[in-house]
């Protein structure tokens, strides 16, 4: 089930690339599926020593989301839109 969720997010990221916000949402869906699979694996191991890696992954995912939203706001302010096709990343 988690591999299906990850594949669905990857397909959304690959085929539906019109807006930067949709790409960021697909990345977040992929990170959430990895987090849930990793948490389930830790529960199956039934050890208390492995409880911090899923929390570390969730923390890094939250940091990635905040950086992505900050970039989205900066791009929307400078270019007026979040459409990926209108962005030329080679120009300053």
Automatic annotation (TrEMBL):
Q: Name one GO cellular component term.
A: mitochondrial inner membrane
- Which organism does this sequence originate in? Nothobranchius kuhntae (Beira killifish)
Annotated EC: 7.1.1.2
Q: What does this protein do?
A: Core subunit of the mitochondrial membrane respiratory chain NADH dehydrogenase (Complex I) which catalyzes electron transfer from NADH through the respiratory chain, using ubiquinone as an electron acceptor. Part of the enzyme membrane arm which is embedded in the lipid bilayer and involved in proton translocation.
TM stretches of this protein: 20-43, 55-76
Provide the membrane topology annotation.
Multi-pass membrane protein
Q: Where in the cell is it found?
A: Mitochondrion inner membrane; Mitochondrion membrane
What Gene Ontology terms for biological process does this UniProt record contain?
ATP synthesis coupled electron transport
Give the family this protein belongs to, as stated in its UniProt record: Belongs to the complex I subunit 4L family.
One Pfam entry name: Oxidored_q2
| GO molecular function terms noted in the UniProt entry | NADH dehydrogenase (ubiquinone) activity; oxidoreductase activity, acting on NAD(P)H
> Which superkingdom heads the taxonomic lineage of this protein's source?
Eukaryota
What is this protein's name?
A: NADH-ubiquinone oxidoreductase chain 4L
